[in-house]
Amino acid sequence: MKTYELLSIIKPNVDTEEYDKLVAKIEEAITALNGNVLFVDKMGRKKLSYSIKDFRDGYFSVHKFDMEPNQVAKFNRQLRLNENILRIMFLETSKTTV
Fold first, then answer.
1. Where are the strands (E) in the chain, listed by range?
2. Which residues of 85-97 are buried (b: 16+ CB within 10 A; e: fewer)?
3. Residues 59, 12: Cα–Cα separation, whole Å
4. Distances in Å between the alpha carbon of 86 and those of 15, 25, 56, 81, 83?
5. 65 pairs with which residues across the strands?
6. Disulfide check for 86: which of 1, 9, 36, 51 has CB 3.0–4.6 Å away?
7. Ramachandran class of 54: left when φ > 0, alpha when ψ lies in -120 to 50, beta otherwise
8. What does the pLDDT look like over 11-62, one tens digit per residue?
9. CA 61/CA 25 separation, integer angstroms
10. What is the Cα–Cα distance from 69 to 67, expressed in whole angstroms?
11. Is 82 helix (H, G, I), strand (E, B) or coil?
12. What's the CA gap between 68 and 64, in Å, rounded?
């Protein structure tokens, strides 16, 4: 397993309760793909540097998790199908030895 960080930006027109549900749904998707959630940071609503799909701000969240590399593409596809997520960014944070 490798360790990843996921930064997601959620549309600002959802209410706080829906934002919490979306963050929980992301966690459920990670565990459904045999991943392990290590850390979740709900950063709240922040202003964007530039507009994304005509939105100037959004709800930010960071998930740190372990997952098999072959499951990441499936997870990425699931996130992109959610219409309330504006942008996602994956980072692999596990160290590799040479």
1. 2-10, 36-52, 55-67, 85-92
2. bbebeeeeeeeee
3. 6
4. 15, 15, 11, 11, 7
5. 4, 37
6. 9
7. left
8. 999 988 999 999 999 999 999 999 999 999 999 899 999 989 999 999 999 9
9. 12
10. 6
11. coil
12. 13
Residue 85, pLDDT > 90, answer yes
Q: What value does the mean pLDDT take over residues 53-80? A: 92
Assess whether pLDDT exceeds 70 at residue 96: no
8 exposure class (CB count in 10 Å sphere: 0-12, 13-18, 19+): buried
Q: pTM higher than 0.90 for the full model? A: no
pLDDT at 1: 86
